[in-house]
Design goal:
By secondary structure, this protein is mainly beta. Helix content is 12%, strand content 36%.
Length: 125
């Protein structure tokens, strides 16, 4: 098994998450060794929350989990790409399909797409 280089970046490495059907980039998060091993053993996108200082299983609150279908590792062993099936359609906590729903256009921000769910209904139960 390949050994990822968590030491090079202080214990956390970037994890790019991409829709396995459309190739749309859904989000960027970070993983530590425990999140990596959990992702491998469960087949679900599991990350390290820097703001909460703990493991975070994508969709544990919203139900919008990420089923990992393929994993790619970069040439330096310090970045991973998870190709996932995004259950529920929305990867972003704002309810959007992708966290990259804001587009810079003519020096202003344009919102691309509409939220698939209301975050207040999902997270403030």
């Amino acid at each position: 098994m390949i050994e990822l280089d968590f030491d090079k970046t202080g214990g956390l490495i970037p994890a790019i998450v991409q829709d396995c059907h459309t190739n749309e980039v859904l989000m960027l998060a970070f993983i530590n060794k425990e999140a990596w091993e959990t992702s491998l053993s469960t087949g679900k996108g599991t990350f390290y929350s820097r703001s909460r200082n703990k493991l975070w299983i994508k969709g544990e609150t919203s139900g919008n989990i990420q089923k990992i279908k393929e994993i790619r590792i970069d040439c330096d062993n310090d970045t991973v790409l998870f190709k996932v099936e995004q259950v529920g359609g929305a990867a972003c906590h704002t309810g959007h399909k992708s966290c990259f729903y804001r587009k810079l256009e003519n020096n202003s921000i344009k919102i691309v797409g509409k939220p698939l769910f209301d975050p207040e209904e999902v997270y403030n139960k």
